[in-house]
Amino acid sequence: MKVLPPTMRENKRYLAFELIAENMIGISRDDLIREIFSASGSLLGDLGSSECNIWLFAFDDNKGVISCERNHVSQTRAVMATITHVKGKRVLLHVLGVSGTVRGATKSI
Amino acid sequence: MVNPSFYDLHVYSVPEGKNTIEEMASFSLRLGISGIAITNPSQSCQPERAQVFDDFEVFSGVEIRVDNPSRLHGMVGKYRKKTDVIVIRGGTENINRAAVENSNVDILSGFGSMKDNGLNHILARSASDNDVAIAFDLGEVVSQRGGRRVRTLSNFRKDLALVRKYDVPFILTSNAGSCYDLRAPRELIALAGLFGMTKEEAISGLSSTPECIISRNRPSKSYVFEGVEIVDSTDVFSDKGDEK
Predict the structure, then answer these.
(1) Of B174, B180, B56, B63, which is closest to residue A83 (Cα–Cα)?
(2) Which residue segments constitute the domains of chain A, with CATH numbers given?
(3) How many residue pairs bridge chain A and chain B with CB atoms within 8 Å of each other?
(4) pLDDT by position in tens, chain B (length 244)
(5) Smallest Cα–Cα separation from B196: which of B113, B136, B107?
(6) Per-residue DSSP letters for B93-134?
(7) pTM
C-alpha cells in the first residue's frame, strides 16, 4: 500500500486526559469508546462528528489519549465535558494537555 | 500573559449536594480552579464560612429561592453582611425583575428562557445598571440530552446577544451538585463556545467578573459606604483634578 503524502494527511491534535471515576474503579476501553461516540453523536450529530473525527487513540489505567481533527479541538473538549456516566458510574474526563504529536501529549500525563 | 485564576461561584455541598466542602475543594484544585463559592439554598442550611486552603479559596455564599419579591429583598438584606456571594434562583417574571433591580444581588441564575419570562432587553438593561451578573449554567448543557439541550443552547445564544448589547456582567458556572459535576475551566470555555461565546468573553466570565464580585463584597478597611472611602491624605494631594 502506498503511504499518503504528508500534505494530504489530515492534521490531528492529540488530547491527553485522565478519567476520574467513582470509587476509583477501572473503566474498560470499549465502554469508554461507546460513551464517547454516544456523547459526540448527541452533541454534534452525525455531521459534526464526522468533521471532528474523534478517536480514542489509547486508554490504559484510566489515562488516555483522544485524537481529533486539528480545527475542532474545542468541540472535542466540549464532547468530553458532556460525558457524565460510563456504565452507570459517575466519571469525569479531565483534559491534561493538547499536542500535535502523541509523544507531546503523553508528556502531560 | 499572566495565567488568570478561575472561579466557580455557584456550587453545592452537603446537604444540598453530594460531597463535602473539602472534597469539592480538592477536586476543584485538581481541575485547575482557584476558588469556589458554596451556595447552598437558604432554606436547607446556614451559609458556610469562607475558608482558605493552601492556594485555594472557598467563599461563603447563599442561594435564595423565594416566590415573592418583597421576601427576596428581605432575604438579600439579611444575608448581605454574612456572605460573599448571593445567588438568586429566578424563574418567574417578578423574581427575575426584583433580582436585577436590587444592586445587593450578585448573581441571577436559572432565569428561564426568553419565551417564558426569561432574560429580555428590560431585565438585561437593569442587570447592567445594577451590576447583577447573570449565570450561564453550563451544568445544564452537560446533563441534558436531545431536545432540552437544544433549547438550552438556543436560549443561551439569545441571552448572549442581550449580554453583549447591554454589557451585562455574566459568569460561567458548572452549578455542580457533586464533585463529578465540576468541570475544568478550559472545558467550560469549550462548552460556552458551543453557543458562540468567544474565548476572551468566557475567560472574563470565569475570572475577572467573579473576582469583581468577591472584591466588591469584601471591602477594604477604608470603605465607608457606596461611593465613600477613606483615602490617605497624601493620595488626595497627589491625585490633583481626579474627580473619582
Answers:
(1) B180
(2) 10-107 (3.30.70.3250)
(3) 51
(4) 568 899 999 999 988 899 999 999 999 999 999 999 999 998 878 888 888 887 899 999 999 999 889 999 999 999 998 899 999 998 788 899 999 999 999 999 988 765 666 788 999 999 999 999 999 999 999 999 888 899 899 999 999 999 999 999 999 999 999 999 999 999 999 999 999 999 999 999 999 999 999 988 887 666 777 677 777 766 555 555 455 4
(5) B136
(6) HHHHHHHHT-TT--EEE----TTTT---HHHHHHHHHHTPEE
(7) 0.89
User: Chain B contacts of A81, Cβ < 8 Å?
Assistant: 142, 183, 187-188, 190-191
Residue listed under C-alpha cell 481626579: B242
- Selected for mutation to probe chain A from B142, B150, B181 (highest A CB count within 10 Å) is B142
Which CATH number does B7-238 carry? 3.20.20.140
User: Cα(B235)–Cα(B238) distance, rounded to whole angstroms?
Assistant: 5
Q: Which amino acid is at A58?
A: A
List chain A residues with CB under 8 Å of B193.
Answer: 74-75, 78
The counts of H helices and E strands in chain A are 4, 5
Which ipTM score applies to this complex? 0.93
Would the CB atoms of B194 and A95 count as touching at under 8 Å? no
8 Å CB contact of B145 and A42: yes
